[in-house]
Amino acid sequence: MASIVAVIASTHHPFYYRASTSTGEDRPPFADEWTRKILAFRETLTRANPDVLVMVGSDHFHQLWLDNMPQFLVGKAPFYDANWYNEEREFGLPRMTLRGQEDLSGHILRSGLDAGFDLAFSNELRIDHSITCPIITLRPEGDLPIVPIYTNIFAPPLPQPKRFVQLGETIREIVASWPSDLRVAIIGTGHLSLELGGPRQFGPHGPDPEFDQRAVEWIATGDLDNCLREVTLDSLHAPGNATHGFMDFMLMMGVAGAGRKADHVDTLDLFHTMEAYFTWYPNGEPA
Amino acid sequence: MSKYLLDKFLYTVDRDPELVERYRAEPRETVEWWESTMANSLLNSVGAEDSTWQSFAPAEREALVAQDHVKLFELGAHPFLTLTLFIAMFERDNKEPLEYQKAYGARLAHFSLPYPDITT
Predict the structure, then answer these.
(1) Per the CB < 8 Å rule, is B78 touching A155?
(2) Containing H/E element for B63?
(3) In angstroms, what separates the C-alpha of A4 from chain B's closest C-alpha?
(4) What is the ipTM of this complex?
(5) What pTM did the predictor assign?
């Protein structure tokens, strides 16, 4: 069976690419520290030596639209083109093409459907920065085949937070049952407190530093009990109007497992939002 | 009231560089053209399958014509769509980093929780 060699949860900040590649007067003062933290984070994936990446993210109204909106969708295609015109325009993100791992996509779809998740699928999916940002930060070579999984954290009505956790737990079981000798890393990105298009956007910190502190503690310690007790679809409006992206972190807590302490925890307090990086090694730290 | 149609306008304009420029330069012409040709377009199909019933309420049409992002927020347009398109159209007129984004937020300062519902 396949082995899950790393579980990784991260924010996906679309400005990292531009900040880390800019030079001279264009380089923001926080870029050096941010890059150092990302390089340390990247090393946690490199050490795990994965063959395949399962990538959990959320389409930002690029391909998935309100006339036909899936709650959870698995990509099943030999290739995924990536990044969109408006992401090039606003964030300077490069276009890329990633290979797909169709056999694992098919296994996740069949097993997920049989486990009670009525997963949607796509055979032609152009992925966006929720998946390409962690490629840029964690595996900039873009050389490993992927299985993209999209969640709806964006277009209400949304699934309940506990459903994200349950899907994460199920993904872990499904990947572990894949008849393959390949080494799989499961990577997911979301947000801590975040406001976009509202009065609290683009402040000196994230809109709710106190929420961010509690959230980092929940994730770092695998405290799903308190997290699920405090987080509801309604409560997530309070820390910021885009904070429902935190449910992708909850999904990754489900993948990592209740009570599992993260092996790597790091944060960076930036303008606009707090960055947070977590890695778990389910089989112990790599040698 | 059609939050969906407001979102559809923002979505279809934001993803097309020519429409972004056209809406910036000629908002009324663009909104009227869009409503008469695109509002009923089923996006993954051909013209013969267009919908038959989509139109803006007057307040929605006027908010788009006026490029009034505060009114769009009040009407429940998806704030991510509005923000992204408005950054594309107007950030270029500002000099300081994030100047436009901060001013955009400040113009919404009179809103408190709960914000207008964006459910479509």
Answers:
(1) yes
(2) helix B58-65
(3) 35
(4) 0.95
(5) 0.97
